[in-house]
Design goal:
The chain has three helices and six strands, in the order ααββαββββ. It is α+β, with helices and mostly antiparallel strands. It has one domain: Nuclear Transport Factor 2, Chain: A, CATH 3.10.450.50.
Length: 137
């Protein structure tokens, strides 16, 4: 099954919206890039966030930690591979770098990870149904 250029572009746009939302503290907007019962699993955090309320709370805590530390964090998604699934599903693999810049200091790489997303086409466009983050330690 081929993937349309329109769908690949839509996945890239989804990742752009998601990165800008979490970096700017728009927690509900970040959570809205997932399905209503979407899942976020990462070895960097003790428990997964599942569902809109938990996803929003996770993003709120993440951004509050950045504000408290005085560091600006940026999520940089690259090397995106979109793999066909069923008629309204895709899988995506991408590298995610989290870069931090403390006030008045040089930027540094916090983490380099791989994200593996199960994506679902919804009436609002592509959304992440399940994200698994793999750390490159």
């Amino acid at each position: 099954m081929d993937i349309s250029a329109e769908d690949v572009l839509a996945v890239h746009q989804l990742y752009g919206r998601q990165s800008h939302a979490i970096d700017s503290g728009r927690a509900a907007d970040w959570a809205a890039t997932f399905t209503a019962d979407g899942e976020f699993h990462s070895p960097s955090y003790p428990d997964p966030a599942i569902g809109a309320a938990e996803l929003t709370a996770f993003a709120e805590r993440f951004h509050a930690g950045c504000v408290d530390s005085g560091e600006v964090l940026r999520h940089v998604v690259s090397t995106v591979e979109v793999i066909p699934g069923g008629p309204d599903t895709l899988t995506s693999r991408a590298y995610l770098q989290i870069v931090g810049t403390p006030t008045g200091e040089a930027s540094r790489l916090h983490r380099l990870t791989t994200v593996v997303d199960d994506l679902v086409r919804t009436p609002a466009g592509w959304r992440i149904d399940r994200r698994v983050v793999l750390r490159d330690d």
